[in-house]
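Thread: "does anyone have the structure for this chain?"

Original post by V.I.:
We have the sequence but no experimental structure in hand. Need at least a predicted one for the grant figures.
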Amino acid sequence: MKRFGTLSFGHYGPLGGGHQLTAADSMLQAIDLAQGMDELGANGVYFRVHHFARQQSSPMPLLAAIAARTERIEMGTGVIDMRYENPLYLAEEAASVDLIGGGRLALGVSRGSPETVVRGYEAFGYTGSEDPRGADIARDHFARFLRAIEGEGLAERDASSPFGGGASGRQRIEPHSPGLRSRVWWGAGNRDSAEWAGRTGVNLMSSTLLTEDRGLPFDILQAEQIDAFRTAWREAGHAGEPRVSVSRSVFPLTTAEDHLYFGGRQEGEGVGYIDGMRSTFGKTYAAEPDVLVEQLKEDAAIASADTLMLTIPSQLGVEFNLRIVESFAKHVAPALGWESTRP
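Reply from O.Q.:
Generated one for you, tokens below.
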């Protein structure tokens, strides 16, 4: 593990006791958290994207605000549901954010996670899928998105237009961010999807759950997925080394408040059904820092990945979550191989 950051699910709504977290609260607190993490030297701040839910749904304005208010931290998504996206408009937005941030966007995309509605992408106008989960739409949109950010000409210039300068040929999407293609990630929930990402030549975000159950521990299944991804990358002839991230719930217990919230949260991994598929879930780690270090060193997927995303309880506010991040950065992460962005 070389890098770590946070993965926020961005929930808002009633908190109990008459308290309410609004959508504005959720976004403004996310910006404040990103600034604090940037000052601590953490590597990234990433956001889940869900439509028709009280969570982040249109991440680009939030990421642009974070890009403008921070200096070094990577900001990204984990993941954008490509079934819902106009791929060319997404290419314009992503390039804009990447340019504002000086090449700090880590754009995680995928087929998407289970929804709160039935085939919600059809309400966005994307119909005609022959797959019950819309995977064909997601792959088609993703292929067109990649062509756009690679700078391919996608529309014929109008030589008679007063704005075209008399040019002919095909025009690319603008703005164009030259390095963005190397910072695109695919969120994979199984081995086949991970191998496809490797062949396609994009980075890998291994999911918080895997849609397979072979009687193996979650971290072993995930490590095998990562190995398959890297093998597919090499066999496809792609240059360089791809990045790989995994996410975990990790809570260093350093105060009485930590023990109150998470002292009983040392949960084992589980097996269940998500989106109609038998799935394996990762465990939650909650312990004193020295115990966490030993536990995380034994996690095969964390050892194999270069980036660890800590899933955080964003509803508990900026101060609380910054303390979790700071405790992890001070007492746990260095023993796993991490170095701060601010030595």
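V.I.: this helps a lot. The longest strand covers residues 244-252.
O.Q.: and The first helix runs from residue 23 to 40.
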